[in-house]
Amino acid sequence: MVSTILPYELSETLRLKKSQYCRFADTHDWDGFASLMLPSLTATFTDPDGTIATENGVRYEFNTRDEFVAFFRAAFETQQTVHIVGPGELTRLSEDEISAIWGVVYHAASHGVTGGWTGTGGGHYHEIWRLVEGKWMMASLRMVRGFWKVSQLEGAHKEVV
């Protein structure tokens, strides 16, 4: 029987990869972002009741890594973000598959010249990581959003230092 508790080195490998996921998204390093995921990645973002999150007519449901990355590359073009994740609940499902649940808080802001918005949200990422050719890769992601609060900014764009 396989122990569900991960060895320290493996836990730290997954924590590093999740931290990179956040940093790559926040710095718009889309090649780095994509490098963490299997091409067959499936990803959904849900509201607390389990329904697929929908904003401005867009359903947050993606059937491939390329679809997922392309959406966020375009969406983050006019945004600045920071994602902060906790240490995660990591459980071995098999020799080559791990379940990870990460608490997350994220801050986002649009950066237009005539104002915009800021928002703070949080929830939990539920992921499956799979060992493929010696590398741990994200196979699936479901982000369950606990909250998302947006404030509209008025007037000219102001840099926050």
Summarize this entry quickly.
With 161 residues, the protein is α+β, with helices and mostly antiparallel strands. Helices cover 22% and strands 49% of the residues.
Description of the molecule:
With 161 residues, the protein is of the alpha+beta class. It has a single domain (8-153), classed as Nuclear Transport Factor 2, Chain: A (Roll). 22% of the residues lie in helices and 49% in strands. It is built from three helices and nine strands. Strands 1, 4, 5, 6, 7, 8 and 9 form a seven-stranded mixed beta sheet that branches. A two-stranded antiparallel sheet has the order 2-3. The longest helix has 19 residues, at 8-26. The radius of gyration is 17 Å and the shape is globular. The mean pLDDT is 92.
**How many alpha or pi helices?**
3
Number of domains: 1
Q: Give the mean pLDDT.
A: 92
CATH architecture: Roll
Structural class based on helices, strands and sheet pairing: alpha+beta
Please compute the radius of gyration using only Cα atoms: 17 Å
Strand content: over 45%
Query: Class, according to the CATH hierarchy?
Result: Alpha Beta
Q: How many angstroms separate the termini?
A: 52 Å
- Count of strand segments: 9
Overall geometry comes to globular
Regarding quaternary structure, what we see is single chain
Largest sheet: 7 strands, mixed
Which residues sit in consecutive blocks of at least 5 with pLDDT less than 50?
none
User: How do the SSEs run, as a string of H and E?
Assistant: HHEEEEHEEEEE
Which percent bin holds the helix content? 10-25%
User: Which fold does the CATH topology refer to?
Assistant: Nuclear Transport Factor 2, Chain: A
Protein name: SnoaL-like domain-containing protein
Organism: Aspergillus keveii
Domain SnoaL-like: 18-142
Pfam families: SnoaL_4
